[in-house]
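Case study B.
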Amino acid sequence: MKKLINTPEREVDEALAGMAAAHPDLIRVEEPNIIVRKDAPRPGKVGVISGGGSGHEPMHGGFVGLGMLDAACPGAVFTSPVPDQMLAATKAVNGGAGVLHIVKNYTGDIMNFEIAAELAQAEGIEVASVVIADDVAVKDSLYTAGRRGVGGTVLAEKIVGAAAEAGADLKTVTALCQKVQDNVRSMGMALTSCTVPAAGKPTFDISDTEMEIGVGIHGEPGRRREALRPADEIVEMLVTPILEEGIFASGDRVLAFVNGMGGTPLIELYVAYRKVNEILTGRGITIARNLVGSYITSLEMAGLSITLLKLDDELLRFWDAPVKTPALRWGV
Amino acid sequence: MKKLINTPEREVDEALAGMAAAHPDLIRVEEPNIIVRKDAPRPGKVGVISGGGSGHEPMHGGFVGLGMLDAACPGAVFTSPVPDQMLAATKAVNGGAGVLHIVKNYTGDIMNFEIAAELAQAEGIEVASVVIADDVAVKDSLYTAGRRGVGGTVLAEKIVGAAAEAGADLKTVTALCQKVQDNVRSMGMALTSCTVPAAGKPTFDISDTEMEIGVGIHGEPGRRREALRPADEIVEMLVTPILEEGIFASGDRVLAFVNGMGGTPLIELYVAYRKVNEILTGRGITIARNLVGSYITSLEMAGLSITLLKLDDELLRFWDAPVKTPALRWGV
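Model:
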């Protein structure tokens, strides 16, 4: 295993220490390993938090800051955070207007966020939750009842964070998050596996001529293993099932998000974006906004995912709103 | 070779088409493969251009836009662009106030930028050039007489671009670029090789237990090959030679840039940043600004480089100035 770490046990703590040292203007890191917006809690503002296993950087900690998350709870690599973290984050960002939990649909995350929500409610904090489950690849999976939560989470955090920043109440913010979930779909693929430091060996074996279509962000199996193909065909294989969901129609405006899994060069993501654009244009769908880069990763896995979000004026306005976080920043 | 491409021959063209489709508000792509700021030329503004082989994304094309580069010339992967590109870029950004060429010190880049500068001058455009040669690892290298130009280039492009945006004349902008070069030093290392698509096989062989200290951004040999060590020791091995340059002293303020080579997860870069911060703090050097991420890459190579730039008020002001490019954005 080749990693730039000291020991697997210390990796997450040391990365958090690095983040805290690099971005003291935006965030603070508190026990028990939560990343909190520097100026939280903000009185009267709905708090928005998320969390999940580490190894999907910059998600979620890189999205803490103005106009996005108020706090993030990073677990060990590819391991759910514990309820104590979610409870501490909920309390740290509670400004009296309630807290929204944005939860990716993995069994451990769901369970632990539920426990934390109950504990927080017992302490008098109003909590709402929305589950993101946007991956069309598989119906159930290794760690999931129902669809997995993937790239749509990044878009939900941005849009919902902007609404909370603008002063929307908990009910409105929650409904908006559900609206994102209802209008977003994703699918991914991998060329290579990644190696979880504590495991010390690749999560799965894959030959030099194969790819995994529909892979999960922990390297979970997808729809099928097959021979590597040219990028344009791969993009077709990901976009087609998304379009078959029945959400996207000619005349629609979408946000197209081409996401690198970690080990894929940006030059390849732009090759893919070119084809996404070509396919959607051919279907009469306009890409009104886009995001191209590695924003929800699987450590050093080579591969990509494609996410489409159907936009309306409200989603567009909150997407465009200012954001200032370690990993996403514009307008300020 | 596992790549998300169609053919090696089409990769750069298709990536440029993707960039043009993704960022029409910021850039345009013109023949013969140049990326130009959308509103160039701007009358009275010094034009700032750079270029080099592709595969180092987001450099340089991702840095074209307000407050940074006016144009970039991408060659084939790890291959210098041709003088025609640099000439076309120079003409495209010439607003009558002259054009600065920021050139990384590689023999092909130097030669071709020189030819382009002569051709542009013959057409009446005033051209100045600054060579970035910040890599302390080796004195000469496979593609270089003198030190290689690496991470310092990113910082130079940001700072110099801000000065040009603010209306500085060619002489001032050129002197500022030289000042960055005089105050910036870098060193990198690799855990794995990368594969140039046209070659189809890894640039170098390295065993599962070794690392290359002082590697170049094309996978050129560094100082030595040795056994993999913990991240903290690796950071020490990179920072120490930089500090031994005699530029950085107790009481100084620096910009610390921890750069991923492409295949290194962000979580590992923050582990490394933590140690950089610890070492510099211990030496009485203050990290006044930082940049942590993959900004000058070697395709999918795993590894990192560390760059330190000694700051003064002028450099700090231009670093903080607004920038709006595909890959770097703040303040707007």
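Chain B has eight helices and 14 strands. The remaining cases will be described in the next quarterly update.
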